[in-house]
Each structure stands twice: as C-alpha cells, then as structure tokens.
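Field reference: sequence -> structure
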Amino acid sequence: MAKENIDEESIHTVSIIAGISFSIMTFAAFFASGFVYDNLIVSYDALTTARNIIESQSLFRAGLCGWLIIIVADVIVAWAFYLFFSCTDKKLSLLSSCLRFLYACILAIAVSCLTFVTILSDTNFARSMNTEQLYPQIMLFVNAFDAIWNWGLIIFGVHLLLTGIIAIRSNIVPTIMAIILIAASASYLIVNPAYMLLPRYSTTIEIIDKILKVPAMGEVAFGLWLFIRGGKKKYGKNFTAAIMKAGTIAF
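Structure field:
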C-alpha cells in the first residue's frame, strides 16, 4: 500500500514538472520561432534576411536565448516522460525519452549555427566585410540551422509516435490524449521528410505544413493536461521529497 502511494505521488510530481516545462517551452517557442525567426528570416532572400538581422540584432539575440530555453526544457521533459511512463513500459519509455534527448542535442547543434549569424551580423564585423560576401554567409548559416533542425524534427516525430503508443497502453492517460499525440507525430513525420526529399515542391509542402500545424499543437494540449493532472495533488513542504521519490522509482 505504501508503494502505491509513493507511485501515485511520484506521478503527480512528474506531471507538474513536465507541465511547467511544457508551459515555459511553449512561450519560448512562440517567441523564438513564431515571432523572432518568422519575422526576420525571409526564405530564399539573403539580402532582406541579412538586413533584418543586422538592423534587429538585440531581437535576434533574444530569440537565440529563447532557443536555449527550449533546449533545456526539452531535456527536462525527456526525463519527466521517462519517469511518467516507466510504470507502463520501461524499455519503450526509455527509448522514447532518449529520442527526445537526441532531438534536443540536434537542436543545440542547429542553434549553434545561429550563434555564427550573431557574429557575422555584428555591426563592427559587418562593416569590415563586403556585403556581397557577408549576406550569402549569413543566409548559409540560417539555411544550415533549418536543415539540421528539420532532421531533428523527424526524430521528434518518432518520439511523439512512441509516446502516443505508450499512452494508449497506459491506464493513466486518456485515450483521446494518446490519439492527439499520434496525430501530432504524423504532422512531423509527413512534412519534414517531404522538405528533405521533395525540395522542388516546397510551396505545396508549406501549404500542407500550415494545415498540419493544428494537430502538431497536440503536444501542447498534452502538456496542459499533465499540468492540470499534476495540480490535483497538493504537496506543500513534501514537494522536494516527492521529486526525489520520482527519480528513484524508475531505476
């Protein structure tokens, strides 16, 4: 009986941690990707993109900080997912969490390309270079970020698919949430490989991408559910102890 109480307490604790991490990640993603990146980066237009970044260096650097927050939050979520689902299928949960951690590593590599952009777009550095050389170099690193991140999102889609499968087998997560996760994975596994394999049809793929952005938001809904579920239990001073219990149960 005591073991069941510890398990339940641990599940609630991990739910809260994952839910908070999801909330932070969502706001950071909306800012870094949805606001900064989408407003400054113009596809296939090196001149406009470079000028936007040079003229908005502070905003671009703030967006870079947002990406770093996303990476840290992703690592925390990977850990939380493993603990949350380990009682259902420990091995599959570990594989799914490792894939998310791998995605976070790939995203970190992609974001490193944007750090080179901050160096190239520095006003003093930019003045010392010919614009005919500078602008294509900035666009090169931006495109490198897109390409590397795209590969990472394919792995992220596999992670969501495995998470959805575990959720279906779990007696904790509602079936509708599991279906939402699988639908979200489909959007990543369809669009991102298409960008890599069918570059000639990028315009058509962009339209499909916009349509599939709705199911892609399914993970946000799952994060909200985790936070609400975790918030049902009050810990008070025992919250730190519950975290320690959560970290030991799965191992």
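Note: The first helix runs from residue 2 to 40.
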